[in-house]
Structure formats: C-alpha cells, structure tokens
Amino acid sequence: EWRMENIVDNIVENIRRKVKPYEKVLVAVSGGVDSTVTALLVKKAVGKRLVPVFVNHGLMREGEVEEVLENLRSLGINPIYIDASNRFLERLKGIRDCEEKRRIIGEEFARIFSDIVRRDKDIKWLAQGTTYPDVIESGSTPGSDRIKSHHNVAGLPDWLGLKVLEPLRELYKDEVRRLALHLGVPKDVAYRHPFPGPGLAVRIIGEVNEEKLRIVRRASRIVEDVLKKHNLYDRVWQAFAVVGDDKWVGVKGDKRQHGYIVIVRVVESVDGMTADWVRIPYEVLDEISKRITSEISEVVMVTYAITTKPPSTIEPC
Ligand code: XMP
Questions:
Q1: Would you say the CB of residue 312 lies under 6 angstroms from ligand 1?
Q2: Does domain 204-304 correspond to CATH entry 3.20.20.150?
Q3: Is 35 known to sit in a ligand binding site?
Q4: What is the distance in A from the centroid of ligand 1 to the CA of 13?
Q5: Residue 31 annotated as binding site
Q6: What is the pLDDT of residue 106?
Q7: DSSP character string of 257-295
Q8: In the prediction, which pLDDT does 150 show?
C-alpha cells in the first residue's frame, strides 16, 4: 500500500531529523501493537541505537511474558528483559485505590528506566506508542479532561530528562494495526486486544494480591479462549475478566462456599474513547460462566458488564 509506505517514510524521516547520529532511543516495549510498531519504526530510523526494554511487572496475563519475548525476537527486536515482578507486587501490597495503584506502577517503571538511562549516557530520547486517542484522554490537548492517568503518557519523560518521540501520535488504533501488518507484524499481534500498561492491576478491584491475580489470570484466559473458539475474539475491541473483593454464597458439591465474583466485560469500540457492550450469545456467556466456576475453585458467580462508555469506562480502574 502506497499510503502505508508514505506514512512509514514520513515517520522515519521525522525521527532521523530529530535524533542526532550518536543519540540512542529508549523504547519500553510491552508486546502490544503500539509499542511494537513504535520500536520497529525507531529501528528503521536509527538501527542499533534503538534500546528496547521489556519490563515484567508481574501483572501480565497467562503465558504472556514468554509469548511477547518470542514475538519481538522474531521481528528482530531483542529487548533488555527486566523481571521486576517482586518489586511491583511488594509495593502494591495494601493499596486499594485505583489512581494510587497507577501512580505506584508508573513510579516503579520510571525508577527502572532511570537506572537504565543513568548507565547509558547516550540515551537521549524516549519513544512512546502514544496514539491519537491517548493524547485526547490524557488531557494533553487543550479543552479535554483527564479521565485516567494512563501511565504511558504521564510524567515519565520528565523523570528521565529525556526528549520524547511519539511517532504514532496522529494515528488511530486501526491505522496502527494496518501499519503493523505492513511492517511484517504477525496478524495475531497486530490485532491483539489493547492491554493496559499497568496490566492486571487495573482489572483487580481493591488490593492486588496473589489470590486475586491467579483468579483474574485464569478467568481472562478462559474469556479469550471461549471467544476465539466461537470466532468472536477478532470482532470485539476488548474482552476480559475482572475480580474484586465482593463475595457470593455458592454451593459446590454439597458444601456452601463463600466465593469470589468474576465480572466479564466484552466491548466493541472504534478507538477506545466510547464503547458499547457486546451482545454475546447466551450460550457463549453460559460456556464462559461454566468454565470459570468449574476451573477456578474460588469463584462461585460470574456476571456480565452491560454498561456503555460513557458513563462507564472500559477498564474498572
Ligand atoms: P478506559 O478504561 O479509560 O480505557 O475506558 C480506554 C482504553 O485505554 C486502555 N487503557 C490503558 N492503556 N495504559 C494503557 O496503555 C493504561 O494505563 C490504560 N488504562 C486503560 C483500555 O484498555 C482501553 O482500551
């Protein structure tokens, strides 16, 4: 496609104009389409002066860390891998408030990146996969309200004293996905659902602990698997599970059991700024519910989230 070719040329040209021939560019890769495309574009522009970093914050989905590393390597991006899961989970202990969780996660990311930047004085730039809707929602354009502190747009560059590149700043998700395919990114990565930077921390209501993490991981995998099985995954914007602290009395076998409630959320959206819940067939919802309650012993109730954005948001936190 000539249009995609044009976009790539423009972006690469732009990066080369800004970044001096000895300067390095840090990119925090997550496995998502935005940061993957950002890294590929920066690599095209500055080659080996790209410094990709993948931080495991312990809030990834089942099997995600291995999958992401493998996908990136197959695209020629071999990130510095930092397993900081203990550090993140330790700092999140006892923290119930959403914005506080987000703040702590952002701060830990910043600490890790500042260590890297301190050790390599040639790193002068941070490239971020900010897309047009991120720009709007984070209130960095005049007249818009800040809805949530999406950490990937928040204060990171200030902390690090780096200059910022945002090559996707003018693109919508759909355009980023087409750009990804154009750059050779496999279809399942290009069309992967958005997954928030703070990971499962925003899909756990209240404190993040091992038990709730285990539940939300397993339940999310089940939601994704069942939707894929019914060819629904690619037709929706996001599909995931949420767990909080509320309990429901259940009967499993012949015992009463006070168990967790899992909320399933499946939405369609064009850009994440507004969303509608998907009218999933009852049989599919039933299958999700049966699998979650039978495969996760701590769960006795599954609910389906049926509120649009607005007034709700997509993620619970
Ligand atoms: P909300 O929940 O605000 O989400 O309706 C809108 C879209 O943004 C994603 N999201 C995030 N993405 N870092 C991200 O990179 C974040 O902190 C974050 N929080 C929400 C969300 O998944 C949805 O697609």
A1: no
A2: no
A3: yes
A4: 30
A5: yes
A6: 92
A7: EEEEEEEEEEEE-SSSSSBEE----HHHHHHHHHHHHHH
A8: 62
